[in-house]
Amino acid sequence: MRSETFVPFRTGLGFDSHEFEEGKPLYIGGVHIESSFGLKGHSDGDVLLHALTDAILGALAEPDIGELFSDRDERWKSAPSELFLREALKRMRGRGYELINLDCVLIADRPRIAPYKDRIREKLSELTGLPVDRISIKGKRREGFCEVEGIACICTVLLGRTDAG
Ligand SMILES: [Zn+2]
Asked: Does the predicted TM-score (pTM) go above 0.85?
């Protein structure tokens, strides 16, 4: 049996980015967004779910999303990224932790994030079981961050021991 020091809280940080790809459906946070382009990548390219998955795995010091779901593995080709998040949540619960809150920054010049913010928060609430008032999504413009156009996402999470209180 693995012995684990009792840590009441753990924070995690996740980052991801994908370039645009014409003609691919665009998913952000599990929400389909009307657009002529999607995000290039082996899976559905959901940059927010990838950053969130890595934040949870990082908080637990588990292997990261690229180690668990290799882009050379045919099983994950065009896979819905909800799969990756579900695995991270399963590992989190198995280790005796629950999500307390999450905070994400989406960096993109297009599409505008603001009109989709509440739908994304609701979808993340459905996927994680967190109430929406503990889910924050912020949209930012690139402002010279990167030359190639696409979407980047930074996400932080706080986990708490389920037996802490
Ligand atoms: Zn990704």
From this structure: yes
CA of 16 to the centre of ligand 1 (A): 5
* Beta-carbon contacts of residue 54 (< 8 Å; ≥ 6 apart): 12, 14, 15, 16, 64, 65, 155
Distance of CA 67 from the midpoint of ligand 1 (Å): 12
- Ordered by start, the domain boundaries in the chain are 9-161
Q: Give yes or no for a contact between 26 and 37, defined as CB atoms under 8 angstroms apart.
A: yes
- For 115-163, the pLDDT digits (tens) are 999 999 999 999 999 999 999 999 999 887 777 889 999 999 999 999 8
Fold of the domain built from segment(s) 9-161 = 60s Ribosomal Protein L30; Chain: A; (3.30.1330)
